[in-house]
UniProtKB/TrEMBL annotation:
Domain Enolpyruvate transferase span(s) in chain numbering: 4-422
Native organism taxonomy: Bacteria, Pseudomonadati, Pseudomonadota, Alphaproteobacteria, Sphingomonadales
Intracellular or extracellular location(s): Cytoplasm
Record-linked InterPro entries: Enolpyruvate_Tfrase_dom, Enolpyruvate_Tfrase_sf, EPSP_synthase, EPSP_synthase_CS, RNA3'P_cycl/enolpyr_Trfase_a/b
Pfam families: EPSP_synthase (PF00275)
Source organism of the structure: Qipengyuania vulgaris
Family (UniProt): Belongs to the EPSP synthase family.
Alphabetical keyword list: Amino-acid biosynthesis, Aromatic amino acid biosynthesis, Cytoplasm, Transferase
Protein name according to UniProt: 3-phosphoshikimate 1-carboxyvinyltransferase
Active site positions: D313
Length: 429
């Protein structure tokens, strides 16, 4: 039997992207930074322990975290391999950070991370002078040695990736001269926003319709107090759950709505979702609101591929919304989803089909014929491939399915949203 409506008020944990950056920039400032609202998920904790092994002191202080940074240029050589767990962001951003520090390091990760492409950061960082010995196919385990002094570059991103952009900008912080990243399509801009709040002069200009982001290194970062807003990617699971479960009426408090991240809410509203932004305000330099979500009939849409970078992690849960909509949802231009924690196009196509949805997998997207609001049959066992977003998306689909769905392992959820299952049970009871 489908679950009861989602009601009440909930708060999702802090933004994962912002949490990684707060720790990294805190470690690069000389003196003490304080972070409130840090996501205490495994991915962020992997960043923290890597930074500790390079000399930063990172500790919990009441509800906050404090970081005593070592400064740009003075990171210590880590004694052991840096274990990045499941986290692509930790790996790629820290590779950037180390690329302009003249120290060697080795990166390792779990089976999922060890399949993901690192060539996309190796390419620009090699041009800056760092050297890399990856595993065959450009993957982890990977050894690298940074270059000091590194060479400034101008780099045009061949894929829309905030991780690649951020890796180059992190390397730029200890590189004498002007390093510029050009992004043809805007990606999440938390690095640019937060570097400014640490006192770095980040120049952003329009060059022939593309965004050019420049940093003149070497830079000094001054310690900072950071408030991390709630993660819009985590909130999206609840926004979809409340949209598809009849009679739901839920408020999700304190959700970051940075325009480079809020594509899922634009897409859901276009499908007919009833999502209101309450108390719009700014938290830690980021736009934030409370989201009031009520059940509503959804309609299939054609998702404009241009919106993809602003909702890149939310496609799995958008596919769930599409499976309950009236009519067809068509997505395209999503090749990047194949190189996340799992191949998210194939994993979601298989998972939704096993729950009774009608899905066609194309090379660069899914085409989904919705149930018109009727519950799916459910009943299948979902293979999550060590991918937290597949696990959470299918848990949401299970709420609106006759027989629920079984998930092979909920463990990966701990990487980004440790209290997800409790919060879902609480909101739906
Ligand atoms: O910079 C970041 O914090 C992130 C960027 C995105 O990855 P890509 O840069 O690979 O698109 C996203 O999928 C990831 O969850 C977090
Ligand atoms: C892709 C993701 O993260 P990462 O690249 O940091 O592993 C994600 O959280 O969906």
């Amino acid at each position: 039997m489908p679950a009861g409506p989602l009601t009440g008020r909930i708060r999702v944990p802090g933004d994962k992207s912002i949490s990684h950056r707060a720790l990294m920039f805190g470690a690069l400032a000389v003196g003490r930074s304080r972070i409130s609202g840090l996501l205490e998920g495994e991915d962020v904790l992997a960043t923290a322990s890597a930074l500790r092994s390079m000399g930063a002191v990172i500790e919990k202080d009441g509800q906050d975290w404090i970081v005593d940074g070592v400064g740009v240029g003075t990171l210590l050589q880590p004694e052991q391999a840096l274990d990045m767990g499941n986290s692509g962001t930790s790996t790629r951003l820290l590779m950037g950070l180390l690329a302009s520090h003249g120290i060697p390091a080795t990166f390792i990760g779990d089976a999922s991370l060890s399949r993901r492409p690192m060539g996309r950061v190796i390419d620009p960082l090699s041009t800056m002078g760092a050297s890399f010995t990856p595993s065959p196919g450009g993957t982890l385990p990977l050894a690298m040695e940074g270059m000091q002094p590194a060479v400034p570059i101008t780099y045009r991103l061949p894929v829309a990736s905030a991780q690649v952009k951020s890796a180059v900008l992190l390397a730029a912080l200890n590189t004498p001269g002007i390093t510029t990243v050009i992004e043809p399509v805007p990606t999440r801009d938390h690095t640019e926003r937060m570097l400014r709040s640490f006192g770095v002069d980040v120049q952003v200009e329009d060059r022939d319709g593309e965004r050019a982001i420049s940093v003149h290194g070497p830079c000094d970062l001054r310690p900072n107090d950071i408030v991390v807003p709630g993660d819009p990617s985590s909130a999206a699971f609840f926004a979809v759950a409340a949209s598809i479960v009849p009679e739901s009426d839920l408020v999700i408090e304190n959700v970051g709505l940075n325009p480079t991240r809020n594509g899922i809410y634009r897409a859901l509203r276009e499908m007919g979702a009833n999502i209101e932004y309450l108390e719009q305000r700014e938290v830690g330099g980021e736009p934030v609101a409370d989201l009031h979500v009520r059940h509503a009939p959804l309609s299939g849409i054609e998702v404009d591929p241009a919106i993809a970078p602003s909702m890149i992690d939310e496609f799995p849960v958008l596919f769930v919304a599409a499976a309950f909509a009236e009519g067809t949802t068509v997505t395209s231009g999503l090749e990047e989803l194949r190189v996340k924690e799992s191949d998210r196009l194939s994993a979601m196509a298989i998972a939704l089909k096993s729950a009774g949805a009608q899905v066609e997998e194309k090379g660069d997207g899914l085409v989904i014929e919705g149930s018109g609001g009727r519950p799916l049959s459910g009943g299948g066992t979902i293979v999550t491939h060590l991918d937290h977003r597949i696990a959470m998306s299918m848990a949401v689909a299970g709420l609106a399915s006759e027989n629920g769905v079984e998930i092979d392992s909920t463990e990966p959820i701990g990487t980004s949203f440790p209290n997800f299952m409790n919060l879902l049970t609480e909101a739906a009871s």
